[in-house]
Amino acid sequence: MLKMLLPVDGSDACSKAISQFIPILDWYKELPVIHLLNVQSPLHGDISVFVSQENIKQYHQEEGLKDLAQVRELLDAAKISYQYHIAIGEPAETIMQFAQAHQFDQIVIGPRGLGVVTGMLLGSIASKLIHLSDIPVLLVK
Q: Which residue of 7, 38, 102, 128 pairs with 64 in a disulfide if CB–CB is 3.0 to 4.6 A?
């Protein structure tokens, strides 16, 4: 069975890409197993001196659930089952590590829509994944 990883950042562009991806699922012989992944940025500095690890973990969990909410609603409305995961780290590297560790067959991601100049200066997660990944990446615009 085909396993797909859909990184979700909570942006409107991501939700739009997923809403356009849902009808494409009919193209597959059988419905793939869908996993959503939200990657939270680590808190920098000496925050752990003032805040407990449990509170930091709870913060990341709550923020991750907020970022996943819109896409989860779309999949629930389409009656598509999925699993979701929340990780902490640099997005592109964390997505790649997660995809390889769980042996996904495909990564499905939408572009952030930063534009050509901003995308070249900052680099986008999608373009990093396309260059780094040995797993096929489907870019849904």
A: 38
pLDDT bin (cut points 50, 70, 90) of residue 55 is confident
Helix orientation angle between 12-21 and 53-77, rounded to the nearest 10 degrees: 40
User: pTM (2 decimals)?
Assistant: 0.88
Q: What is the CATH number of the domain that holds 88?
A: 3.40.50.620
- Both tokens of residue 33? 């197993």
Give the three-state DSSP class for 119: helix
Which whole-number Å values give the CA distances from 52 to 48, 58, 106, 112, in the listed order?
6, 10, 37, 33
User: Rounded to whole angstroms, how far apart are CA atoms 26 and 88?
Assistant: 32
Q: By CB neighbour count within 10 A (0-12 exposed, 13-18 middle, 19+ buried), where does 18 fall? A: buried
Distance CA(82)–CA(138), nearest Å, equals 18
- The answer to whether 100 and 137 are in contact (CB under 8 A) is no
| Angle subtended at Cα 131 by Cα 106 and Cα 63, rounded to the nearest 5 degrees | 65
